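User: I'm putting together a small comparison set for a docking exercise, and I want a reference complex before I start. The sequence is below, and the ligand is FE2/S2 (inorganic) cluster. Could you produce the 3D structure with the ligand included, as structure tokens?
Assistant: Of course. I'll restate your input first, then give the structure tokens for the complex.
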Amino acid sequence: MFRRLPDLGGETVNFTIDGRPATARLGDTVAAALLASGMESCRTTPVSGAPRAPYCMMGVCFECLVTINGIGNRQSCLIPVAEGMAIETQKGARSIASEYSAKGDAA
Amino acid sequence: MKTIKDVAALSECYDLLVIGAGPAGMAAAATGAEQGLSTLLIDENPAPGGQIYRGITTTPVAAKETLGADYWRGTDLVRDLTASEATYAPETTVWSVGPAAEGPSDPGRMEVGVSVGGAARLIQARQVIAATGALERPFPIPGWTLPGVMTAGGAQIALKTSGLVPDGRVVVAGSGPLLYLLTAQLRAAGAKISVMLDTTPHENWGRAIRYASDFLRSPYLGKGLKLLLGAHRGMRIVRGITAIEADGDSRVRSVRFRHGSKEEELPCDVLLLHQGVVPNINLANAVGCALDWDDDQLTWVPQTDEWYETSVKGFTIAGDGAGIGGAESAALRGRLAALGAGHRLGRLSAKDRDQMAAPVRTELMRAGRGRRFLDVLYRPAKAFRVPKADDTIVCRCEEVTAGKLRETVALGVAGPNQMKSFLRCGMGPCQGRLCGLTVTELIADTRGVSPNEVGGYRLRPPIKPITLGELAALPKTPAAIKAVER
Amino acid sequence: MTQNSAIRLESEIAVIGGGLVGSATAYGLARQGARVLMFDEGDIAYRASRGNFALVWVQSKGLGMPEYATWTKASAEQWSTLAKSLRDDTDIDVAHHQPGGFILCLSEAEMEARINAMRRLHNQPKMVQYPYEVLDHDETKRRLPAIGPDVVGSVFCPLDGHVNSLRLFRALHTAIARLKVDYRPNSPIESIKPDHDGFLINGPWGQARVQKVVLAAGLGNARLAPMVGLHAPVRPSKGQVIVTEKAAPFLHHPMVTVRQTDEGGVMIGDSQEDLGFDTVVTPPVISLMAQRAVRMFPLLAGLNIVRTWSALRVMSPDGFPIYDQSQSCPGAFVVTCHSGVTLAANHTLTLAHHILEGTLPASLEAFSSRRFHVSSAA
Ligand SMILES: Cc1cc2nc3c(=O)[nH]c(=O)nc-3n(C[C@H](O)[C@@H](O)[C@H](O)COP(=O)(O)OP(=O)(O)OC[C@H]3O[C@@H](n4cnc5c(N)ncnc54)[C@H](O)[C@@H]3O)c2cc1C
Ligand SMILES: Cc1cc2nc3c(=O)[nH]c(=O)nc-3n(C[C@H](O)[C@H](O)[C@H](O)COP(=O)(O)OP(=O)(O)OC[C@H]3O[C@@H](n4cnc5c(N)ncnc54)[C@H](O)[C@@H]3O)c2cc1C
Ligand code: FES
């Protein structure tokens, strides 16, 4: 859907999308990094299961929600991507029960 | 300028708290600090700029002509801000503003809920200027929720902040001067835009013409002509569009549109929508500011006085959040707002304030020249504000359709708040930002009354997401304990 | 304001107020074939029915008036009949569930107070009997694995349940529309006058002549009741509520202050404040509500809040419902309560029938407002 302009320079950042490695440019928001990586949709809705992708890129539509480092429903268009980030696309409503037990296991 | 990224490092109280680091907020903060006011500037983005100057200190798009001279004009504002004594808190959101319950009582003292990196706090401000700007008007067409359909402004943000351009078969659709600007920037950056679908109603020309003389004397004329001429080069423009539909399964695959009696369908990978911007009034609404329906701009506009103070004492709105006037006007209004606040704080005498404001007001007059013509000319068509097709989604979050809304009006639901209860429209995470105007206009249209009579959603804090954990950590009062513990 | 006042209406019964109480009563009346007019205010109004917590709640109700416990239990028991009737009439599923509910306690003191309250409630003479269990932390944890260490124990009652109260609101309005109730929003009532065999009802919109009138105007009843020889000294009690984003189902029982809706959002309620008609949401109150909820269920801490609100309960001096027929103006009734969700089944299936018959039975005598005259004389 999006491609990057050639010769932008800048530092690169490594992260994962659903476990697959990807790279972004330092300064990208997570949403931009996902668009640049060829992702088509970042979640399905809790109401009907329809796929959605970032729509406004400015924090007002809440379509860009993804799981970042184990925390669901983060607004990816407002969050800068960081080295080592684990980003997951979401299916339907966020499961706080599994987020919570994963956090417990990690601790 | 001092930068703070930790909620604990914020002071208990600021003389002036400015929300939003677009042109209005940057100008207000610099002007406030210049008067010696302890000034805090908060913005949810990682860097200053707001929408027009988004990423101006960080953009990787080096070629100046891609984003254009108007974009780079923001450098001056950033320089003034950086040179000032203001404190700047990036990646920080304001989720509530309300009257301060305790503490020294100066009229207008406010309590402001802020959140940084997952930690919330309440701080106080003696004056608040909301420079929260605008957002793109909802564009409810069938298929607008499909991946691959986004706002043209969203694509511009991806370009400014990350140097991304839409790829594949790109179609832009809508109306307004910004649509042409965004299209030109994306094309300058190398996007191949195959077609522009212009939805500006033909009739608008007839109405706009009487405001043309001001426009002809304004700088908009030259800029507009350049954009129009540019647009015609290498891009098909279809005018008089009366219906658009995005089609696809897991993402947009094609776009269908009608112009005159003709219907066409084109393959499409990215569909960019834009039909103007409207004030982002969520905060003002939650604070309780009186709002009026503006029939020219087809949106809610907060009531303000000549210093942009709202009906809520101590709460001022500067920039496009107080009515769309454009970036230049936003910065000027930011300065006036800060002068007004300085006077109310006893920092400036009325005489000094007025003297300092006089040249700003002159500039503001000049900057506003020609706007009326543009407003009237690019008043978006009803078909794209009040969707005709019943299966068009109006509330994206709760997936409520136009048909369902009309059916529910027929039950006797007279306004958006009862509608919200009945259908959940406006109850999702976007808090009605993407459906509020449509719901109001659709109810008004179905009932045959004015939007002002129908009213808008009533909102409450938090107007930006905070977690239960963040909220739980805030201070309690004895009254709260009495109210809750039973 | 005279331009619309030309409207002239005529009907058998007028219900004043289109909240849950008015619409449930109107539904009951219309189901039995009555011709009903229902008057309501507009989009912005004090309307508890839009802001409630959606419990169909039994345990803890009726201390001081055992008849209220009987009445509440009866409503909980016939709630599934109401839900089915609404589904049949409107195709709307109001998500009524009765899995049993908990009151969780966060300290030994709270636990003791709760146990005492339950004991006093059930030791009252004439108290209807129903099962409840006092559970310690471990047993509560076995049944509600998500609780945190701060939960000392709980009281569980199998009769407790919840619904989707907004869908209930819509279903009632849809049902009455299908049954040809003439619903009149934006039509406030200013005065009611007894007239021959009926009543003349007036507002800025015009006038209606009806044989019977049911006051179901929530807080508005206080002003309207004396016009027809009734007494409904209700006052507002403010309640603040928080709701979160949708989450996958994890909470399968309602608590009195925390529940997960069928749509996934978690609701956290609800404070009680006596501040007149003030409806501002205040951070310290919602903060404490959030803190208690997170102590009950630590996994809630990461959920984002999407909305908060405050709404006004319709509270009588002793907190119990008022059901009365006017002695001086027979045919005028008042129906008001602070648990209009719980009691909706009774209002539709039982009370409406009595109103149509024209007499309230002896079993409802306890709810007459005469009880307030007695206590003020004492
Ligand atoms: C997507 C988009 C793109 C635009 N592009 C252009 C353009 O290229 N050229 C042009 O002339 N005009 C453009 N505009 C019009 C725009 O309104 C400008 O006129 C100008 O940016 C307005 O300036 P402002 O200071 O009023 O607000 P803005 O520039 O919009 O700044 C508001 C700032 O406040 C922040 N904010 C809002 N709410 C909160 C909160 N609760 N907490 C913390 N921060 C908050 C926002 O993130 C934003 O940074 C654009 C508008 C939009 C919506
Ligand atoms: C925070 C909170 C939590 C609650 N939780 C629960 C719960 O969990 N379970 C439960 O069972 N109950 C609960 N309730 C109570 C329940 O919501 C109410 O009992 C119920 O909504 C009351 O309904 P009502 O129709 O009497 O009043 P309202 O909903 O207030 O409706 C009154 C109606 O009358 C109209 N009106 C007023 N004056 C006039 C006039 N002069 N002319 C015409 N119309 C008029 C108003 O516009 C309004 O529509 C809760 C209430 C609150 C506030
Ligand atoms: S894309 Fe709209 S909120 Fe992130």
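Residues 5 and 205 of chain C are 4 Å apart (CA to CA). The radius of gyration of chain C is 21 Å.
User: Thanks, that's exactly what I needed.
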